[in-house]
Amino acid sequence: MTQGTISDRLAILADAAKYDASCASSGTTKRHSRDGKGIGSTQGMGICHAYAPDGRCISLLKILLTNHCIFDCHYCVNRKSSNVRRARFTPQEVVALTLSFYRRNYIEGLFLSSGIVKSSSHTMEQLIEVARTLREAHGFRGYIHLKTIPEADPALVRQAGLWADRVSINVELPTAAGLARLAPDKNGQRIEGAIADIGDAITEAKDARKRFRHAPRFAPAGQSTQMIVGADSANDREIIGRANALYDRFRLRRVYYSAFSPIPDASAVLPLRRPPLMREHRLYQSDWLVRFYGFSTGEVQQAADEQGMLPLDIDPKLAWALKYRDGFPVDINRAPRELLLRVPGLGTRAVTAILHARRHHRLRLDDLARLTRAVARLRPFIIAADWRPTALTDRIDLRARIAPPRQMELFG
Length: 412
Ligand code: SF4
Hints:
The protein is of the alpha/beta class. The chain contains 15 helices and ten strands.
């Protein structure tokens, strides 16, 4: 294990953390230190995000406590059998780094995960120690996201939520078969048990705070999880089904998708190529259709092709509309919000603006052009005061007419 300087170890442990996609800090409670008490804020600007060459968003203080691990997950660069340089921080070093970066306005908080040393519970204790020290000893009011460690004692996982804004545990792979094959030390049922336990603790804490103002908060930004896409044979339809089952069963705040990246000295059971990053993007779009656009899971799954894959060249809402054209055109001057949200090219903000504007006059295509840039794509699917698509909606070549020209993937 590397016993280098703090910055040597930071280079190793920040790099090792970049494979975790779940770095959003949205949705937590508002805290600040403008009254002179404590340090940090969950609202302030100044977080320094970096983007990895493959397009992922990486926070500067998104680190692992250690990249040493006793597990051997095939897809992970930190697995036991991997030949990477190892390093480790003490909890006190992570606390000092967090405070020093925060004071310099480099970061808005801490995203802390870890490989497993000695045991899952021992590692979890160390992560909790970081969060507890920041909060209790330093009055740190910035954002903290703790990754919980698979197989750790549930009582420890519950403690993590008392100090962190968000806790998460990765389901890792979309199917139980994929998990058994690629992460043989992990147990899918126990991971789901931990997710359920955290969900119960969040609900209990919310109920308690309704009755007692000073009841402790528990992970106010909720919990999230992450799935690796493209490391096993699961298709998009299966991934969408799995993600939405997790939302429904555990009231997760977010399911993150992470396109599998080939790693150095990769295990032979892994694919040699990563999936196109656009696949990850299309899955996020499908996620939004269910969470914000009123689509059912089944409807989004219907946007997939015969192989169960979402098209890469068009977004899933357009793919769905092209398949189910009998629901179109939609009259933008009469249709309710839920139908307008199904029109390809209309986002939630544009729909709100349409509902507002049509109270004053009947909307024409020009009016729409001021609300959205996607008018050319919209035309086959809408009726406006001066527009009716007649046969356009049913044309066999409609997809080719409105899909953007295919481009070669630059980094494929
Ligand atoms: S437990 Fe986590 S750090 Fe360890 S090998 Fe598996 S994915 Fe990597």
